Structure formats: structure tokens, C-alpha cells
Amino acid sequence: MDMKKKPLWIMIVALLTFALVLGACASPTPEPTEEPTEEVVEEPTEEPVEEPTEEPVEEPEEEVEAPTLVVWADETRSPIIEEISGKYAEELGIEVEVVQLGFGDIRDQVKVAGPAGEGPDLFIGAHDWLGELVANGLVAEIDLGQKADSFFGPAVDAFTYQGTLYGMPYATENIAFFCNPDLLSEYADGERPETWDEVMSLAETIEENSDGEATAWTIQTNDPYHMFPLVTAYGGYIFGRSEGGYDPQDVGLDSEGAIAAAEWLEMMSAEGHVEAGVDYDVMHTLFEQGQVACIGTGPWALGRIRESGVSYNIGKFPAGDDTNGRPFLGVQGFMVSAFSENQLLAQTLLSEVVASDEFMQGLYDADPRPSAWLPVREATDDEDLAAFAEAGAEGLPMPAIPEMASVWTAWGDAEELIISGEVTGEEAFQNAAEQIRTQIEEGQ
Amino acid sequence: MTVDVQRHRGSKGPLDALSNNLGRYVLVLLGLAVLDALGIWLLYRLLRDGAWPVALPILAILLLINVLNLSPKLFPVRWHIPAGAIVILIIIFPMVYTFYSAFTNYSDGHILSKQQSISRLEQDTYLPEGGTTYSWTAYRSPEGEFALWLVGPEGEDYLAMRDSFEDVEPGEGIVGPADEEGIPAELEGYQRLSRVEVIKFLPDLDGVKFGQPPDQVQVVNLNSVAPLVQRYTYNEERDAVIDQREDVVYYADEEVGFFISEEGEQLQPGYMVWNGLYNFQRLFSSSAFRGPFLRIFAWTITFAFLSVLTTFALGLLVAIAFNDPLVPGRKIIRSLLLIPYTLPGIIGVLIWRGLLNPHLGVIPLTLENWIGWAPPFYTHPMWAKVGILIINLWLGYPYMMLISSGALQAIPEDIYDAAAVDGANSWQQFWNITLPLLLVSVGPLLIASFVFNFNNFAVIYPFLEGRPPMAGTPTPAGHTDILISYTYRIAFEGGRGSDYAYAAAITIVIFVIVAVLTLIQYQFTRRWEEVSESV
Known about the structure:
The complex is a heterodimer.
Chain A (H helix, E strand, L loop, with lengths): L1 H25 L7 H12 L8 H10 L4 E6 L4 H15 L2 E6 L2 H11 L8 E5 L3 H6 L3 E2 L12 H6 L1 E2 L2 E2 L2 E6 L2 E4 L1 H7 L8 H14 L5 E3 L6 H10 L5 E4 L2 E7 L4 H15 L9 H9 L3 E6 L4 H7 L4 E3 L12 E10 L5 H12 L2 H10 L7 H6 L3 H9 L4 E2 L9 H13 L5 H18 L2
Helix pairs in contact in A: 2-3, 4-15, 10-11, 11-19, 18-19
Chain B lengths: L1 H8 L4 H7 L1 H27 L3 H19 L10 H21 L12 H10 L1 E2 L8 E6 L5 E6 L5 E4 L4 E2 L24 E2 L9 H4 L4 E3 L2 E5 L5 E2 L2 E2 L1 E4 L4 E4 L4 E6 L4 E4 L16 H8 L1 H4 L2 H29 L8 H8 L1 H4 L2 H11 L6 H10 L9 H29 L3 H9 L4 H29 L2 H8 L18 H10 L7 H35 L1
Antiparallel strand pairs in B: 1-10, 2-3, 2-6, 3-4, 4-5, 7-8, 8-9, 11-12, 12-13, 13-14
Helix pairs in contact in B: 2-3, 3-4, 4-5, 10-15, 10-17, 13-18, 15-17, 15-18, 17-20, 19-20
């Protein structure tokens, strides 16, 4: 046996040794690449023989390889980022490489590529990713410097996590309350409902006058994001706020206000004003076909609503007991990777190039949403977007704490159980709050 | 000597080739050497980046290639290398990695190694009390050395270089005369950089300290330099991170993967550690497990069983119907019936999701028109399950049709002739001849289909994400959830983000369940075989 094995292992060891030598010879590849650049630099020196004194001074500068920044952005924004930053990069003697990824993929990929050293220097993202990004050590602190005052305050607050600023915001987004004035005047008095109670009585009126062809309001059956303005209108909350931001120990889905909102929804369902099985498409189709007078939706739906030709106006959410419904405020911005080797340069690109009217206007034009850059935000002449900004003026930043992961499903399921009439509003929200507490406690 | 042994044994090893065809042998060796060189280079890069989980399978494949090419005994099976490589890469490696992950705390907040976590913490800096922030102008020597001219808030100016921090006036020493803004136009041996020019040198200035403590500054941004101090330092002896600003010590806790202070405060980010059986303990003591687990388990088995039963029944029916050569155009019809099999499953599910939509879907709208009622496929627990089974039937019957067609043709005609002579009608022939003989050959495939459907996340999740929700469960669960989609909920839609290690642990538990079920089913196929022997 030994006799047979010997040659095999000797052979393998010999091969590997040989391969190691080959590998060692091949590894110092970066060095030879410098040669051609030197040649290029040397060539022009031959021509201006008359001014030899100036040449040596300039030469070392040209030897410096232009530092490269890698930016990750989605398909809507990468062309404009590439265009504007490319233009400035040339002036500044740096290179900017824009890599296009799906917006949601950026979040997942940063997690994988960052620690492996393959990640970007800068990336765009939403502020509510911060809990996860910070817990994983993926983002670096940034400094808006003298330009801080030019940013929309709540947007900067949203990118501040546990007292530290981690992003430069460029756009805000929130949902607003859309109503169809034609439908309202055809079957009712034409007035937008100001309170949720009015929404309920409006539903009765419209259904009666239209023989059940139309109703006042609908909502996605399992979608807490769109339900939030209803909860806040009655004074409900998701996580209580303390000095350091949202407090995961204080779950407010079974607070008095939240349960009042749940009971309102229960009543709507019991009276048959709201149906189950509605998803994003159904909600919008019903609104666009004039079967529903009002829905809550965001700027991303403006395109399809305008295209459908339905008449609409945009405004604040109805009020509950006292305040108007407050939607979630989402903020998008640029973040600097903690694994970037050029953090100083990346931050400088943000403060010198991105934080400018031209860049922010470009981002706005590529995807119209209320800008986080005040000069552009205030100059917005699009009435719809101005209305969105107004509806979101009282908006609450979506909690960025990682515990939010426990909230969405529990809350959405509670909403669905109420709408399908399986449990009472109180029961559904109490159980959802318990589910959230259990998951936070049992999560690692 | 060894060569002799090889010859006498008559093996066709490479050493035989040596005597027969030296050139070819050298070629093999050279090829191997080049491959090994590439492989070692790759391994070196991967290990340098700490990516040893990826390096391991590559090492295994590399060794496999070498052993198979060099071992005289294994030389004949070297054509199995591609298959072996694929087995290692896509079967063994994911299994080993899943198993390994299940015993760690790999999850959001613990994705970095301890070393990475420490270097992330060491990045943080702070401005100590009384620290002054200066505006700055940079000068660069042809050798690439930098000097900074600093102006403080009260107009005081300093020259900061690598090792010195001096209070000098323009015109003194190497400092040239001031321009109209009071900043020296030049330093001897250095060239002044404009605000724009300095940008491309920022990577060289990043983190570089100028001067000596306490007068030591570094560049903060284009407008300022400041005497920043590193906030967290790692002390290897105490295995602790010390917060210099707040003067707090955070000790490494190797059980949870965090640096923790005596008050119990954790530093972010945490890091990955081994935690033994913790994930399994967590699972079996969790509310998610105690709660709706049994109901979900029961539906998982029902779903898998009914999926196999319905797809096999329809597939067999179609196969028998079109097995008869008298059916006109049967080849075309059979091809058309295969269409669901050729579509990616996820697209099929999404199309069906649209068809069953209670408000816009063709099927509910048509039914409502005809009979005034449509099943609530999205919202009613039972009808949602029916919807899932319909979708899976559509997706799965072509496969059953294919395997049944093949198996049908293998049943000898004379058995049917004999049965007809004995007076058996076609129904009796089907139950007593066709089905038992068919089951012998397709039985194992049905079991495989059961196992596949047991974990058929790709049908359950895209349809309704496991909904409609169950009421009153301790953690969220849905009526159409099967174990694997429930696992997804527990590990990725709860807690504090994605929990990969926990998911891996639950997957292992599911694997054990599936393995036991499969073993039980194989006992059944044995019985079918006995039946076939008695026919």
C-alpha cells in the first residue's frame, strides 16, 4: 500500500511546490503596469526643450494616479450621478465610477461586499436602513459642515441615528391623501373629508347614491405603511420616542389611540365599507376607475394616476380625535461606507459636488420627489409635489431601529384580520403588540 | 521499483503513460502545475481576505483534480472531475456551510469578524474638550511630503508638518511671504496646492497625523483640521475595547459576540462567534415553536401529499388519454400540455396570483358573472389553500405526465391481453395492473416529489407570503405557511433583522423531519414492489 501511495503524494507536493513558485513569480503584477504611464509622461518632455526648469515640477503631479470613488446607485439616479459627478471629477482630478444596482439590492449587497473589501465608497439608500447598517458596522459618520443649514431639517434628523449623522439626504417621501373631486361632487357634496368620521359617513352617502358602484375610501389589506396616518390621527404610535430616538421597549400598537384607530377600521369593515383582498394594484385601479373616492398613496404613484386621466387633488390625511393623520417620512440620501479606503475623499465629494443646486436639481429631475436640499425644495413649482411636502410636513421619520423588522408583519396581519372581520380591532392590535414584544425579546 | 509494481499490476496509470508517451505525461503535469498555480493564487487571495469558507471547497476541488490525475489507481475515474467539482460546490459546500452557520450567531449585528469589528471601532474619532479646529492650506513637496498652514479661530497661524507643529510667521525660515489673505504663497521645497488641487491628494492625507501630541492634528474635511483623538482602542491583554472619551471599558464577550461594559452596554458592531447549540435551544423554547408549529406542520404534510396526489392523478390521466394512438393530433396536444413545465415556476405563480385576484382576476370575475359568487382565494384560509393546490397542480402535472407516459409504455401488452381473457374490464385492469406496475417504477419519483413540495417555498411565498394570517398566535403565522416559509418569517421578518444562523439551525431540523418522512415512505415502496411480484 505504502509503495503505491508514495509517488502520488510526492508528485502532489512537487506539483504544489512548482505551482507555488509559478504563483510567486506571477504575483508582483502591479509593478509592471506603472511602466507605460511613465513612458507617456516622458514623451511630451522631449518637445518643449526650451523650458526644462518647469517640467520636473509638474512631473511628479502627473505621476499620481487619479483616486477612484465607487458609487452605488439605482437605475433612476445612476445616469444623473454619473453625468454630474463625472464632470466635476475631471476638474478635481479624481475618478468616479457609478455602479447600478436595484435600490433594495444596495442594502443587501453592501452587507456582503463591504466587509469583503469589494463594496462601494459611497452608496444611496433610505434612512430606515440605518439601524441594520450601523449594527453591522457598515456606514461611516459624515459631516455636512457649513452646508448643514441648506438641508431640510427633518431629513437630516432622519439620517441621525443614536446621535450620529450617517448620511447626506437628497429627497424625502411620504404618502398623502388623494381624493377624486369629480366623484365627490357626483355622489356627495364635493368636499374632501376632513376627519376619519367624515370618511365613514361619506362612504355611506356615496354607496347609497351610487347603488354600491363606488365608495369613499380603501386601503391595502395587509399594508401597515399606508395605515400609519390612520393610527397617528387617533394618537397611536409604533415605538415611543425618547432622547436617543425610538425606544424599542415602548411598543405603542396597543396604546389607546392605536386601538381607537383599529376600532374605526373594524367599524368600516363591519358596515361593509372596506373590503379584504386589496393589494397595491387593486387600490390604484379602483381609484383610477372612479370606484373609490379617496386613497392614501405616494409620489411614486403620480405617474400612473396622471396617465389614467382621473381627476384628483392631494392633501393632508383626515384627522382623528385632534391631529391630522401623520404619515411616515422616508428620506433617501448618500452614505459613506465604513469599509471605504477613501472616506475623506468620499465625504469631500458629497460636500463639494453633491451638496449643490445643480446636483440636487438633477436628482429631482430624474425622479421628482420633494428635495431634501432647501433651495430646490422651495423652488419646486410642481403643485402635486408641493402638496406632498405639505402633507408630510408633520410626518414622522420611519423608525430606523432594527426592531422595526418585528413590526411590519405583526401589524399588517392585524390590519388584515380586522378588515376580514375575523377579530375585533382591540383584540387584533393587542395581539400584534404582544407579537412584536415577543419577537423583539426572543430575537437575538 | 514503484514503476515495476505498476506495470505488473497492469494499471493504466500516468506512470504507464510515462513509458508509452512521455510527451503526454509532461503535458498533464504542466497543465496541473498551471492549474495549481492559478488555484493557489486564488486561495492565497481568498485567505488573505479571510474568506476561508469559500477557499475550502476550492481547495477540495483542487486536491481532487490532483489526486485523480496523479493516482494510478484513481486515474481511470478522472472524467468524474467535473461532476465531483459540481457536487462539492453546490451540494457538499452549502450543506457544510449551513451546518457550520447553525452553530454560530451569524446574523444582523454579527456579520463581521472580531478583527473587523475592532478595526471598525478604531475608526471613530472625537474632538477632545478644548481642542481647536483650524482652517488649512496644503503644500506638497515633489517627494510627496505634505505641510499644512493652519489658521485658528482667532487668526493665529501655525505650520504643521509630519513631526513638527510650529508657531511661525510668514517670511520666517522656510515659510515664504504672505499673500493678501495672510497665507504664505510658498514654502521652501514645497508647492502650494489650491483648494481644488488638494482634492485629488485627499487619499494621501486621510488619517495622517501632523505634529506631535498634544499639538497633533489631522484633516477633517476641506475646511478644517482638528486634533482628533481615536475614541476606541483595543487592549489585547485585557481583550477589551476602551472608550477614551467616556473612559469606559468594554470587555469582549465571546458567548454573545459583543464588547460589553460592566453596566451591560453593548458596542456596535458586534462580531461573529461560535455559540454551540444555542440556536437549537432557542428554537425549541421559542413562542414561534410552541405556538402554531403543529398546525403549520400538519398543513405542510397535507400540502405536499395533496400536491403529489393531484399532480400524479392528472398527469396519469392525461398520459393514459394520450397514450392511445387513435387520438388525433396527440403529439401536438401533448407538447402544449407541457407548457407549464417549461415556464419558470415563479412566473407561473405570479400569473396565477393575478388570475385569482378577488377584485381584478379573470377567474373570480367570471365566476361572479356566471354564478354570482367567487371563492375568496386571497382571504379565506380554506380557499387560499385550494388556490395554492390549483397553482401547484398546474405547475406539477406535466412532470407527472412525462414520467407516467414513459412508465406506461414499459408495461407489457400481453398482461392486458391475459386480463381481458380472464374477463377483467378496463377499470379492473387499471386498478390491478396499470397502477401497481406503474407505482413500482414511479414510486421513488413520487417520494422525491413529496420531498420537493415539502420545502416548496417558491409556490407558497410568491402567492400570498403564507397569508391569510392566523388570529391570536404568539408570533405572526399564516394559514398557507409551510415549515420553510414559516422559517423565513422567523429568521428574516422578525427580531432585529436577518438571522442567518437561526435560519440554518431551523433548516437542519426540517432536514431531519424530511429524512424521517422519506424513510417511512420507502417502506411503502417496498410494499408496492411486493405487489408487482405477485401480479
